[in-house]
C-alpha cells in the first residue's frame, strides 16, 4: 500500500518547516520507501507498518504544536510492491510516447 499524507501544525504561526521536518524525519528513519514533495509525503509498505509511521509522524509534530491537521490518501493494492517508482515510471512512459 502507498499512503500519501500531509501533517500541518496549527497554532504555531506561518513558518511550519521545522515541524514538517520532524514528521519527515520519522518517515525517513522508518526505512520504508518514501518520497516527499511540496505538498505530501508518500510512504509504501504493509498496512500496519505504514500506519505506525504516520502515527509516529503525527506524534512528532504533536509534541511541539497545540493542534495537528492530518490529510491522508491510501492506495491499497495487495501484492503490489515498488508502487512509488512504478506508478511514476508508467506516467513518464506515456508522456515520452
Automatic annotation (TrEMBL):
<dbReference type="InterPro" id="IPR002767">
    <property type="entry name" value="Thiamine_BP"/>
</dbReference>
<dbReference type="Pfam" id="PF01910">
    <property type="entry name" value="Thiamine_BP"/>
</dbReference>
<protein>
    <submittedName>
        <fullName>MTH1187 family thiamine-binding protein</fullName>
    </submittedName>
</protein>
<dbReference type="InterPro" id="IPR051614">
    <property type="entry name" value="UPF0045_domain"/>
</dbReference>
<feature type="domain" description="Thiamine-binding protein">
    <location>
        <begin position="3"/>
        <end position="92"/>
    </location>
</feature>
<dbReference type="InterPro" id="IPR029756">
    <property type="entry name" value="MTH1187/YkoF-like"/>
</dbReference>
<comment type="similarity">
    <text>Belongs to the UPF0045 family.</text>
</comment>
Amino acid at each position: 500500500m502507498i499512503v500519501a499524507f500531509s501533517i500541518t501544525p496549527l497554532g504555531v504561526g506561518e513558518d511550519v518547516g521545522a515541524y514538517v521536518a520532524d514528521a519527515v524525519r520519522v518517515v525517513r528513519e522508518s526505512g520504508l520507501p518514501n518520497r516527499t514533495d511540496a505538498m505530501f509525503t508518500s510512504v509504501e509498505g504493509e498496512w500496519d507498518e505504514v500506519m505506525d509511521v504516520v502515527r509516529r509522524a503525527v506524534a512528532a509534530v504533536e509534541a511541539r504544536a497545540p493542534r495537528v491537521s492530518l490529510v491522508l490518501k491510501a492506495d491499497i493494492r495487495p501484492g503490489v510492491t515498488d508502487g512509488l517508482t512504478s506508478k511514476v515510471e508508467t506516467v513518464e512512459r506515456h508522456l515520452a510516447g
